[in-house]
Design brief:
The structure is a homodimer. Chain A is an alpha/beta fold. Chain A folds into three domains: about 250 residues, Glucose-6-phosphate isomerase like protein, domain 1 (Rossmann fold); about 190 residues, Rossmann fold (3-Layer(aba) Sandwich), CATH 3.40.50; about 45 residues. Chain A is about 45% helix and about 10% strand. Chain A contains 19 helices and 15 strands. The first copy, chain A, has a six-stranded mixed β-sheet with strand order 1-2-15-12-10-11, with helices on both faces. In chain A, strand 10, helix 14 and strand 11 form a beta-alpha-beta unit. Chain A starts with 11 loop residues before the first helix and ends with a helix.
Chain lengths: ~550, ~550
Amino acid sequence: MGSKKFNIRNHQAYTNLKSLSKSFIKKNVHLKNLIQTKNRFEKFSLQMNDFSYDFSKQRIDDAILKELFELARQTNAKETFSQMVSGKTVNTTEKRPALHTAARDFTQDQILLNDKDVIIEINKVNKQIKSFTENIHNKKIKGTTGKFFTDAVVIGIGGSYLGCKFVYSALQHGIEPLINLHFLPNVDIDNFGQIIKKINPETCLWIIISKSYTTIETMANLNQALLFLKNNHLDPANHIVTVTAKDSPGDEPSNSSLGSFHMFDFIGGRYSVASAVGGLPLSLAFGFDNFHRFLKGCHTMDLHAINAPEENNIPLITALISIWNSNFLDYPALAIIPYCTALSNLCPHVQQLYMESLGKGVTHDGKITDHRTGTIIFGEPGTNAQHSFFQFAHQGSPFPIEFIGVVNPVYNKAQATSKGVSNHQELWANLIAQATGLAKGNKTNNNAKYFPGNRPSSTILINDLTPESIGMLLAFYEARTVYEGFILGINPFDQFGVELGKVLASDIRNQIRQKNINKTNDFTSLDTATKFYLDILFKESL
Amino acid sequence: MGSKKFNIRNHQAYTNLKSLSKSFIKKNVHLKNLIQTKNRFEKFSLQMNDFSYDFSKQRIDDAILKELFELARQTNAKETFSQMVSGKTVNTTEKRPALHTAARDFTQDQILLNDKDVIIEINKVNKQIKSFTENIHNKKIKGTTGKFFTDAVVIGIGGSYLGCKFVYSALQHGIEPLINLHFLPNVDIDNFGQIIKKINPETCLWIIISKSYTTIETMANLNQALLFLKNNHLDPANHIVTVTAKDSPGDEPSNSSLGSFHMFDFIGGRYSVASAVGGLPLSLAFGFDNFHRFLKGCHTMDLHAINAPEENNIPLITALISIWNSNFLDYPALAIIPYCTALSNLCPHVQQLYMESLGKGVTHDGKITDHRTGTIIFGEPGTNAQHSFFQFAHQGSPFPIEFIGVVNPVYNKAQATSKGVSNHQELWANLIAQATGLAKGNKTNNNAKYFPGNRPSSTILINDLTPESIGMLLAFYEARTVYEGFILGINPFDQFGVELGKVLASDIRNQIRQKNINKTNDFTSLDTATKFYLDILFKESL
């Protein structure tokens, strides 16, 4: 890492920003005035390669923006990003690199890691994905009863499905799936129960995604799937494929399956959509060529994130504004509001990507943090959100919003007009109006209809719902997240915060297992609350 | 309303709670110690009619709880709730009652409103729903081409679909739908484009839900649906039904349709699931008898919310704890985490119900509020959430969590075991473990693995996914929301905060319409940002 000072508060720019924020708040600078300053939009917006970012309605001015760039320089954000891309050990707690960008790198000849070329390994897996999915589509690979595949169930949780589900749901608007995907993340048996209503067991593939092949939920759902296959007289060797680490218990040939596709230690779960984790299911659904187009979109954004100078670097600026909003203006949350139903699953993906990466309690050198790291992310598509929680956004406790617009919808058949505009035009009228209303507000004599305004937002535009555009959007959120982590001096690649729950769940599981074996186990050694819940679980009634 | 003092800060209990919170924070009372105090679980949990609420892991003690009940009494919360149920004008800004409880009231003989009996009017609509949906199910009512109906598209936004979608998705785990529902809230044309891929126009009903029949999005989607019917040579009179106010433009016979089902002024959108808004689609999907069972569940909770004394009143206590967490402990958000995939759509519904009801800037008497009203609501089902944002929940900025457990899953066919437990048992092991881990935390020498704990949560249990249990859960969130509004001295039934966006969108729509008519309109009268977006919209490219 570039700097030894991992606490962001030790940088001069941070101190300067603190005093800038104090005077900014004290002067009570209102957004309705800020957005009318000269050349505001020109100075506070950027366009690159069919991706547009407008931060003119953020509560910043020239001096603040300048100092934010200074903060990026003092924390060596760009240098660290380049180190990440070239394979340095940026994930210091787990002592490994974070090479998700290598999964879509079409420019570097090689990235050496322990004398092995990462690019060669990635290309090998992609070739395997291409060949396997073509054989499924060409009906060369079929199920036990000789029928060709129509559906695939993805068994994987967290980073093993959220990104893939986002891309799948976004692309299926424009590309008819060759294979329908279903997602089974939850150990909840009713998640399984609903999915098997929708599939024909004879024409269904099961994709098991787990790096270690020990993830509790995934293994429990795998066992449930194996029982289901057995009861339907189907051979797992014809119906199961795995995405897992080399030599894990799920890797062929130790595991009987149609094949294994390798995940690598150097790509973390929540950054893994461009690897086999997204590659296999998405290529099954849309064909490998479309997955390749998606990778190209990711790569375009990666190149921008690496090469653009601070002042033109969209993911970096987004990260700086996020830090400004959470650490200096004290906003506790960010809403992501795509004016696009196809992007409904973007927010759950970014919620994981961002909150798991940045919700940390220690800096890179193991010191307890004394500043905010990340914020809560939530959101629903607009205009739906306007009829849901936007009452709160306008008149309740304020929070920043990230709007996303898509220039061209997919649907191109007969379209009605209402009040003289098409539905897509109506959608955009609302997108534009909300950002303006939140910023400007409105005064009236009736307090119930008073809008304080001064509520910040950014607006992102992408051109369409093609694989390239979705790839750019995905890589944008990845780059912005790691940039924010680098500037905050924390590790955006580990997730030790999930460990305690696992340990405690294991203790309770043991109690349940004992009771399954010996019905006389009465949980009296446990605290009252835990005993209460376990008694009810076994009584099967409140 | 019972009290003239609408500002919660004017109550003695509020002042007392302020000083209690200061000493509580100063004493640094940790939850790991609190939960071990004598009879903690017995004193801080409640069970009623197959509904359990455990608030033993909230950061409160006996003195705080006592004072919270005092706050409820001083704000006349229970009295106001009873007034609401009996039809008093509790929605003061819009000068009308809020009688959603009447939609499932099986005990009161009559509720008079302007000399009309509300109960009779509601029963009339329910009879009409029963008869109509039976005729659909019995195939007496068919589409233009003589085929019987298999699908219905609900066109409605906000309160006209979120609650219904929650109940539909929860119940379909246990009850096979007779008619499949699809939801078309968004004016995004791709929302429409995806739905028509899934339906056969000849066997599809369209349910248009809008009280005024002027909601922009709903009318735009109606026009799109009418064009679609026309292009498929189908008669709207055979394929459209409306849920709307008497004498609105969508009311039969002024509108050509299969029939109209009336909505009433005295039931607000976000509280309308038990009215025809939920009644018609849910009865189509599951039969009127199941909708009736759902109403009974709602009513059971309503009776509890009305009759239980403060100390035993679950929705009231939940509201008090919510106020404690947001106004005294300064938490900015609440996560709702059902350990149940079937409840995936509960959070988006409650997000609207709660944030639109409580995200207000004025008290009942029109004074600008100087305290927090409501909080951000977000969430995903567990265990999924554990692999998403629970890193942040354990080690990032803390927020309270509401866990929900379901004692009995629906799926009852062959079940596998893993590590000696069933999937449902594994789910519960995690549900119990998370609440414990968040409260207790854990100390280690490695700061990266340090869990500060002291993070509050509640746990709600329902027995199953029957219509009765889902009704109780829905009515619980309604009662808890209005209780919080009453105590905060705000109006939980209006939503003036959505007006500004509508006005501004209308201005922009006019600009777009002008350009549609006259291509030379070049938006030069508009601000740079707005012009930028409109130029791109018409250029169809970034």
